[in-house]
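Hey all, quick one. A colleague (J.T.) asked me to put the flavin mononucleotide job into the tracker so the inputs and the structure tokens live in one place instead of scattered across chat threads. No bug as far as I know, just bookkeeping. Sequence used:
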Amino acid sequence: MHYPSLFTPLQIGPYHLSHRVAMAPLTRMRADTSSLAARALNAEYYAQRATQGGLIIAEASQVTPTGRGNPDTPGIYSRAQVAGWKQVTDAVHAKGGIIFLQLWHVGRASHSSYQPDGVLPVSASAIAISGKTRTASGDIAPYEVPRALRTDEIPGIIEAYRQGARNALEAGFDGIEIHGANGYLLEQFLQSRSNLRIDRYGGSIENRARLLLEVVDAAIEVWGADRVAVRLSPYGVANDSGEADPMPLYSHVIGQLAPRGLAYLHFVEPRSSGAGRSEVNHTDVPAAFELFRPLWPGVLITAGGFDGASAEAAIASGNVDAIAFGRTFIANPDLPERIRKNAMLTPYDRATFYGGDVAGYTDYPFQEAE
Ligand SMILES: Cc1cc2nc3c(=O)[nH]c(=O)nc-3n(C[C@H](O)[C@H](O)[C@H](O)COP(=O)(O)O)c2cc1C
């Protein structure tokens, strides 16, 4: 059998990708501080990274004010935010790009300083993330014990995702990706160490998976399944996550998602989480895309520490259909072209990942014109 290469076209849902070098969702904390709407600078950044038929997954965007846990992350719940994102999608479409929005609720990975009225953040259960976070005033403080959502509040969470999905459609996105990874709210429900609930959203694997699946179904009602995607990190350890035995849980989740006919499933590989404030490269960890490929009949995307050569090898193995690049896409706006030409890559500067302005955002160079 002849397997494709990174530059073989790929169909995702109704969209025709001309290559398989996707831009991973990347929180950059540069939305407008008061409205939390994307601004012209954000449109410029995404347009720089758009290619004809290339997939961009825009950064995680909170679906409700309670879903925020960091400064200046964009939202997708207000009129101003819809208008802000519209400038981004217009700029990307003008370059022929395809752009999905990642829908986010951080759950307990927040702090009361980010919450409306300064209340505690919410989660599946009243269990704090160990360690410290940066508060809205910039101080370093321990994570707080979150407030467990009442069962009767869960429909409101699903409605927030549904409205976020509607807003993303109105803002001109081509699809949405539900953020079920990296220790945020949906993963807090999925995993047993953060979910000790005794209602229908906790306990058994079926119950812990229920919220994610109900959110996905709400998104499908708005978009149709072939423009909805899900991101999971079965072996991740971000934000104090980590299921002791991921295989049964994630086999169930992926098995439930498979017949829904989604645009794609997207993994964060555990060997390199990439986010956070320092480099973490785990060794001796499984490759999620290899393990779960047999359970996923649709398009599979993965991310985590790839370069051109390892991405090419992964695609050629037939175990994954596209590779999302995070850190190298930050520093190389023309990454697909550089990979195609095997050109030098500009190193990224971690100090400018989160927050700030132009520096480390829109000022990375393009390859010299030939
Ligand atoms: C600055 C930064 C911000 C990130 N923000 C997000 C995010 O908003 N949503 C998400 O699912 N993953 C996020 N990630 C993880 C990346 O999408 C990606 O999975 C990770 O960086 C591994 O890919 P890489 O090795 O190519 O960087 C972030 C990573 C970095 C470095």
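Adding what we noticed when we looked at it: The chain is about 30% helix and 15% strand. The mean pLDDT is 95.
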